[in-house]
Amino acid sequence: MPRAGLTAGRLVAAAADLADEAGYENVTLSALARRFNVKDASLYTHVRGLRDLRTRMALLAGGEMTDRIAAAVEGRTGKDALAAFAGAYRDYALTHPGRYAATQIRLDEATVTDSPALRRTAEVTYGLLRAYGLEEPDLTDAVRLLRSSFHGYCALESAGAFGAPRDLEASWDRMIDALHLTLLNWPRGAAP
């Protein structure tokens, strides 16, 4: 019988909070059970296991992040939209490190297809890039460029790995300038 007040939604939210506090890798069913003062087995009424919990965390965090990005880019175009998108991405990654880590796991195709949050992520991202006149397969390549640039910068920044005395904001702004120019001058043609 489910414990009163314990739901899948509450478990996932608590797991996301735990990830932000202690690190994504420290989210376990045992740690979550301790938060609710229940036995590990009680959680299986609401989630199928750790993989299911982490998938649900990824969907929760992905939806939160997309909502912030969508709000930031609304009504903007070109470089302003790119900078707003990047800023919202970076802010989420740095203020919610555990949740952000959850968004980096690979999800199975059925989960991606069935998730309104992930479909919205694609809509927002591809909408930004279509404004630069990109179409497939260039859209996919550009998404990969942006994601790897933003993720790499955020991962290095959060790890304190930038040792040069140059201001981080100035470097971030230059990266956005460079990405904007790259998108404006995207090589079109017979790419494989």
From TrEMBL:
UniProt xrefs under SUPFAM superfamilies: Homeodomain-like (SSF46689), Tetracyclin repressor-like, C-terminal domain (SSF48498)
Presence of keyword Transcription: yes
Gene3D superfamilies, per the entry: Homeodomain-like, Tetracycline Repressor, domain 2
Residue ranges of domain HTH tetR-type in the record: 5-65
Organism from which the protein derives: Streptomyces althioticus subsp. attaecolombicae
Keywords: DNA-binding, Transcription, Transcription regulation
Pfam families for this protein: TetR_C_33, TetR_N
DNA-binding stretch(es), residue numbering of this chain: 28-47
Xref: InterPro entries: Homeodomain-like_sf, HTH_TetR, MT1864/Rv1816-like_C, Tet_transcr_reg_TetR-rel_C_sf
Keyword Acetylation set for record: no
Name of the molecule in the record: TetR-like C-terminal domain-containing protein
